[in-house]
Amino acid sequence: MAPTVSNEGGNMTTPRGDCVSYGGGVQSTALLVMAARKMIDYPLFIFANTGDDSEHPDSLDYVRNIATPYAKQHGIEVVEVARKGPTLMQAAMGEGEATSSNFPLPFYGSGGPLNRTCTAKWKIHTVGQELRARGHSAKNPAHVALGISVDEFQRAKGEGYQDPKFKIQILHYPLLQHNLTRHDCHELIADEGLPQPGKSSCFFCPYHSKLKWQHLRVTRPDLFEKSVQLERRYQQRLEEKGAPKQWISAAGPRSGMTLDVAINDQPELFGDEDCGGYCHT
Predict the structure, then answer these.
(1) Residue in 30, 5, 70 with CA at minimum distance from that of residue 175
(2) Fewer CB within 10 Å, N side or C side of the chain?
């Protein structure tokens, strides 16, 4: 367990940790508000940027122009870190240091989403590099909070979990400890007078639902087209390697259609749907 500190005038003990793995989305921004209100004691929020060409521009804008100034007002540090070498988009396109065998995204084959390295390399280990730079190690692990709410508790690995393959961090879940849902997180952010953050993910994430892809096509056709080009390049590289075909959307293997054909451009009513936090931030 992380150390605890008593709330002012209350009986609840509040987790004291080293940092929050910050994704710039609803749940992790709610943690920022909770830290500002002294509901939890986490002085550092680490945002792992997969690349300015990879993260959704709205997420980058929120982290840099909303969350960071707000955090500074409350004595909280938000630090943005990035993996050395190619961005996630560059690696997926086969550029930079990437080799022909580097296929980091969980594209879909006949058996469903395939293996990925995007989360580990561009998110988890990038946060780990920052923790090491701040003096943490397997023998001196950091207490790291993740923004997982009670309506997605199945994502949590258990309070105080320490991955045997990544011993530098011990995981904590303040939203679960405070019994907060995603709706509660929205209300907490609104009550603080902050704008609501958008979905925190790479705009080309294969875990997008059909609804999310349609939303991207209608609202950000430029980003949708980049996703289409990424899928084409991915398939070209696979063909050059003699590997089975893969698709960026779940509809691809079933229909054999590429993203630009599988996702129509008809306006729809878009709900408040998210991918479920596959990047663990």
Answers:
(1) 30
(2) N
